[in-house]
Specification:
The chain is mainly β and 226 residues long. It is built from no helices and 16 strands.
Length: 226
């Protein structure tokens, strides 16, 4: 799961796929395959982009204005953005949110269902100290780790945001076909409202029948990472 931990602390648990998903070692069972082993981040990659200037990242170069000039990069996490901790009834993956980036499966999957739980933490980081907590599950991720805004892979995002959980959002220009109507016909870049029975349109941002954003199902093509 390319977990865009981009704005705040979040805790993830119960990451799993059904064993019927198409893997290298295929199975027809309907049990769930855990993606998190409950101990460490084996089976995952991390990618962190350029930190905010108020973060202290040892060894990372800054320019004369104090801004970082390069990303932290792949499988480098000096500030421990991604860790495994214990909470309540067991181990969870803690995402501090200090530096924007992703936690990505090392293996590719296709035709899958993904199940996980999340819980917000308390710590907030600049530049979003006063903003709503906001993260996302970026699925069917392909290509460069920095394809979207310098932090995330090209992917479909299931938005996880306070008061706004379940949006579909396009990262790095991906699109889906959805039965929808144009929300604002006068706006060439208008969002679409999901409407059963409506013509199928290309969508980069999708809203529900009541005007709230909703999810859209994406057809899986070649195997990709979560």
């Amino acid at each position: 799961m390319n977990t865009g931990m981009n704005r705040r602390t979040a805790l993830l648990a119960m990451l799993a796929l059904p064993l019927g998903s198409k893997l290298t070692g295929q199975s027809t069972q309907r049990d769930w395959l855990p993606l998190f082993n409950g101990t460490d981040l084996t089976g995952w990659e991390t990618y962190l982009g350029k930190p905010h200037k108020l973060s202290d990242v040892p060894g990372l170069v800054r320019n004369a204005q104090g801004d970082y000039t390069a990303p932290v990069g792949l499988n480098a996490d000096p500030n421990h953005v991604f860790t495994v901790v214990r909470m309540d009834d067991g181990p969870v993956i803690r995402v501090s949110g200090e530096i924007y980036g992703g936690l990505i499966t090392a293996q590719a999957y296709e035709n899958y269902h993904l199940r996980f739980e999340f819980k917000w933490g308390e710590k907030r980081w600049p530049p979003r100290e006063q903003a709503v907590r906001d993260t996302g599950c970026c699925y069917h991720s392909v290509g460069r780790h920095d394809a979207s805004y310098g932090f995330w892979m090209k992917s479909f995002e299931f938005q996880i945001q306070e008061g706004d959980c379940g949006d579909f959002y396009s990262l790095a220009g991906v699109i889906v076909d959805a039965s929808a109507v144009v929300r604002d016909p006068a706006n060439a870049k208008s969002d679409l409202v999901f409407t059963r029975g409506a013509p199928r349109l290309n969508a980069r941002s999708l809203f529900g029948l009541d005007g709230s954003r909703t999810t859209a199902s994406a057809s899986t093509m070649t195997p990709a990472r979560l």
